[in-house]
Design brief:
heterodimer, A: alpha+beta, Immunoglobulin-like, four-stranded antiparallel sheet, 7 strands, 48% helix, elongated, B: mainly alpha, Arp2/3 complex 21 kDa subunit ARPC3, 8 helices, 2 strands, 4% strand
């Protein structure tokens, strides 16, 4: 048996030296707007979908719960922002929680889901267009502002998804070595304190 | 196995913090000066074990080395795991600072159990008892940690059984692998440095 274990040791050693620095933990939530609905997708870092996770939509400023539900088998869910949120132009905080204790949240700003342009943005937009750019504003009118907004949103959705992926907290070699350095330092302090205590005695 | 922030209620976080600090204090007090480097090495091993990934279908899971940390460090597993989890929270964003106490208890209590029940077994002169003791300590610690994590979630108002099922099913392969690693390391130590397994106080 001991021989067998000895044979096995190099393989296990190899396992310990596995060079993959990837993510064991964490969950990622990503939301995008599609016309009047907000669509969301939740995944664990390994790529597995969050089955039957619970989600809720909160008012980002007050923290009041507006909506809640469960994710489907592919970790997806969608909702239409409630009337109240639309009227008050609330920013929404979407929180998704897996039953294993993982959790992530995503901010959906009022400007993302409201079909009309928020007052401030409209003003700055028209100012910028002011005197020099009459042509672009005409073409915008021709397409229809809402449609243009939808097109831009659709085009941006994959990009936002990619950004969400990049947002995943990555573990770098520097992090790992930094942590090991801290442990070494703490052990040194502990050993120093212990040796002082012993020499006093 | 790391529970994220914002899920558990405040009393549970407080209890976890208190219990982990108590465990760490006992661990620091009981550790002999010559054992300090070993505790440091085990804290470092636990810290980096989370980067060793075992591919499992579409997902991947990582090692924890709880049984091994418990067998080799005894009560000092509390300070070792507390520090390693603190650094994992700071560097890797695993868990978080408010849940540090609860996460420490989830992982250090099974390690301590592995020490209390596994140490007499691995000191046995009969080889099969040593091997099975090491395997049970390694694998059992992971499963116990899964049960504790599910219990913490149940105390936070989640349904216990679905959470326990998800966590345990995901960690069965880790438990088997960790059992094998623990057997390998204990076997290696028996051969090379048996006093390391014998010297530790119960």
């Amino acid at each position: 048996m001991v021989r067998r274990i000895q044979k096995l040791t190099p393989f296990l050693g190899l396992l310990l030296l596995w060079p993959s620095v990837c993510l064991g933990h964490g969950m990622n939530l990503f939301c995008w707007t599609d016309q009047d609905t907000v669509k969301c997708e939740s995944r664990f870092s390994g790529g597995r979908a969050v089955h039957n996770g619970s989600w809720r939509v909160l008012d980002a400023t007050s923290g009041d719960r507006l909506l809640s539900g469960a994710t489907d088998s592919e970790g997806r869910f969608s909702f239409s922002p409630p009337q109240e949120a639309e009227e008050k132009r609330l920013d929404l905080k979407v929180v998704c929680e897996a039953d294993t204790g993982h959790r992530d949240s995503w901010m959906v700003r009022a400007a993302d889901y409201l079909s009309d342009v928020s007052g401030h943005k409209e003003n700055t937009g028209s100012e910028a267009n002011g005197d020099e750019a009459t042509e672009p504003s005409e073409s915008v009118e021709a397409i229809g502002e809402e449609k243009l907004r939808r097109i831009v949103n659709e085009e941006l959705a994959p990009l936002r998804k990619e950004l969400a992926r990049l947002r995943e907290p990555g573990v770098t070699l520097r992090d790992a070595l930094g942590g090991l350095g801290y442990i070494l330092g703490l052990v040194g302090i502990w050993a120093f304190a212990a040796s002082r205590r012993e020499s006093r005695q | 196995m790391h529970i994220a922030e914002g899920i558990l209620p405040l009393p549970l976080l407080g209890a976890g913090a208190g219990l982990s600090l108590l465990g760490a204090a006992i661990g620091l007090k009981r550790t002999q000066q010559e054992e300090i480097p070993l505790v440091g090495v085990m804290a470092a091993a636990f810290f980096v074990a989370s980067l060793v990934h075992v591919p499992l279908g579409p997902a991947s899971i990582h090692l924890l080395l709880l049984g091994l940390v418990g067998l080799l460090t005894g009560w000092a597993c509390f300070p070792a795991i507390l520090i390693a989890l603190l650094l994992q929270a700071l560097f890797f964003q695993y868990g978080g600072l408010t849940v540090l106490g609860v996460n420490t208890c989830i992982m250090a209590l099974p390690a301590l159990l592995a020490h209390l029940f596994g140490t007499p077994l691995i000191r046995s002169s009969r080889r099969w008892i040593t091997v099975s003791g090491a395997f049970i300590a390694g694998a059992g610690a992971i499963l116990a940690a899964g049960v504790l994590a599910a219990t913490a979630l149940a105390l936070a108002g989640k349904a216990f059984f679905p959470a326990a099922q998800t966590i345990l099913v995901a960690h069965i392969p880790v438990a088997v692998i960790e059992g094998m690693i623990t057997v390998a390391v204990v076997g290696f130590m028996h051969k090379v440095k048996p006093e390391m397994l014998a010297s530790r106080k119960q």
